[in-house]
Specification:
Homodimer. The chain is of the alpha/beta class and about 350 residues long. Helices cover about 20% and strands about 25% of the residues. Helix 1 crosses helix 5.
Length: about 350
């Protein structure tokens, strides 16, 4: 006989910035909390670029992405939530008493009063380079993410793509690579304006509207030359390269969740200003949530998390305070401060 399910006040699906901060703030609201992450570690999309410097988080200017993940993960665990890894939630069952059972793809079940969907962009997969035979070079010098900068030192790097990550990687690699060339099939880039201006004013060779169309390898193991083509004129040029970084976007997988009856588009669920979805007791936060005053920064994800947790608390207890007290006046932190040996007198 299966063990009876344990009922939680709040279950957070997703372990990115919004999910981690929601886990912490849920502890401030004295909620019995569970966080479920499909991967085997916390971090969400930030895991794609661990060495990227992040400048827009209050109090940390700048901070390496991997360090921010570590800080947020530590904070998320302060009030001892239950953390579950390696489970992708796909199913939702509403019980007669209004509580929910969340069902993982692998069959595990989780019982909860409320849910926060902090799914980011879903289970993300990098869009692969659409050139025959490209996959053979993935073990040598064709990359879909930049995990470390040092391996690119002194090398001729070609970046294909025009989104935030492509622009950021160009700026990060420019000081250490021998040369950086960016090819993008559109004249306009999709990154933040300041970062685009920084890239264009540096030594980065920016070529638009160009596309990477052919790969060459002298030894059959690594790419040493490429053809880039002007998408308007058809003009081609060959470039010698030591490494290629491809950022052609992300393919998102919200397997199962799109069948829950949520009001959503391809990437987002539509939420109210209180981060309520159209399903009772289910809230959203971070990149997955879309509402009129949305702020697409990590700082915005933190704010979403607070609003979503407060809404979950009030959904369960309409007489509860609208928000948690600040940490200097919050009883839950007095014991934590004593554990740290802090004298509050």
């Amino acid at each position: 006989m299966a063990e009876p399910l344990e009922l939680y006040d709040l279950t957070i699906i997703g372990g990115g910035p919004a999910g981690m901060y929601a886990s912490f703030y849920s502890g401030m609201r004295d909620l019995k909390t569970k966080l479920i992450e499909a991967k085997e570690e916390l971090g969400g999309r930030m895991l794609i670029y661990p060495e990227k410097m992040i400048w827009d988080v209050g109090g940390f200017a700048p901070i390496a992405c991997e360090k921010l993940i570590a800080q947020l993960a530590h904070q998320a665990a302060i009030f001892d939530p239950t953390l579950v890894f390696g489970q992708q939630i796909t199913g939702l069952e509403r019980r007669g008493d209004g509580t929910y059972v969340l069902v993982a793809e692998s069959g595990e079940r989780h019982w909860t009063r409320t849910v926060i969907l902090a799914l980011g962009r879903g289970i993300l997969k990098m869009a692969k380079l659409d050139i025959e035979g490209a996959e053979r070079y993935e073990i040598t010098n064709l990359h879909y993410t930049v995990q470390e900068l040092e391996p690119f030192r002194g090398k001729r790097v070609l970046i294909s793509g025009g989104g935030n990550s492509a622009v950021d990687w160009a700026n990060e690699l420019e000081p250490i690579a021998g040369s950086v060339t960016v090819v993008h099939r559109r004249n306009q880039f999709g990154g933040h304006e300041k970062n685009i201006d920084r890239m264009k004013s540096s030594s980065v060779d920016v070529r638009t509207p160009y596309a990477l169309t052919q790969l060459y390898s002298g030894d059959g193991e690594a790419i040493d030359k490429v053809t880039v083509s002007n998408v308007d004129t058809g003009e081609t040029e060959q470039l010698e390269v030591d490494a290629i970084v491809v950022n052609h976007g992300l393919q998102s997988d919200f397997t199962g969740i799109k069948d829950w009856g949520l009001n959503m588009n391809e990437w987002n669920v539509f939420a109210s200003g209180k981060l309520e979805t159209n399903l009772p007791g289910i809230f959203a936060a971070g990149d997955f949530a879309d509402y009129s005053s949305k702020v697409n920064l990590i700082a915005g994800a933190f704010s979403d998390a607070v609003l979503a947790v407060n809404s979950a608390k009030l959904y369960m207890d309409p007489e509860a305070p609208r928000a948690a007290y600040v940490s200097s006046h919050n009883d839950r932190f007095k014991e934590k401060n004593r554990e740290l040996g802090v004298n509050e007198e």
